[in-house]
Amino acid sequence: MAATTEGAIKAFLEGLGSGVPAFRDGPRVGQTPPYWVIEQQDVAVNAVPAGDFGDPDAEVSVVETLTVDLIEQARIKTGPNTTRNAQRYGLAEVTARALHGCRLPAAPGPITAVRFRDIDRFPIADNRIRSSITVEVHRPLYPTEVLPA
Q1: What is the DSSP string of 102-130?
Q2: Given CA atoms 29, 33, 38, 39 in this order, what sign does their dihedral have?
Q3: Does an H or E element contain 9, and which?
Q4: What is the value of pTM for the model shown?
């Protein structure tokens, strides 16, 4: 079991068999692309309340928003004046589709829904491309601290 939702997504991505390593909050020093970076952006109370908010023991439903960024090298130099594409076109979309509706079995608590929201693509410095997948994870707010195993 993962200690965080980010860890559960990391385990899920690595289980897809794409051969692309995944990291929470940033890659290790010197990591070469491609790789995934999973970061929590927000945890907000679900707009559709679950339970009585006057009851301190009622379950509180939240939506956790995360970004799943695919960092890839854009081009590889093949000669003095030539390059070729290095991107794995479609990998971000295939991954977004796999995340949409999955249950994240390694999550630290029950997951009621995982929803893909969008994919943004950004050229970044140093010959790299970032495809950023926004994911919403619907779950109860944890009533106790999750301790890593």
Answers
A1: ---TTSSS---EEEEEEEEEEEETTTEEE
A2: positive
A3: helix 5-15
A4: 0.87
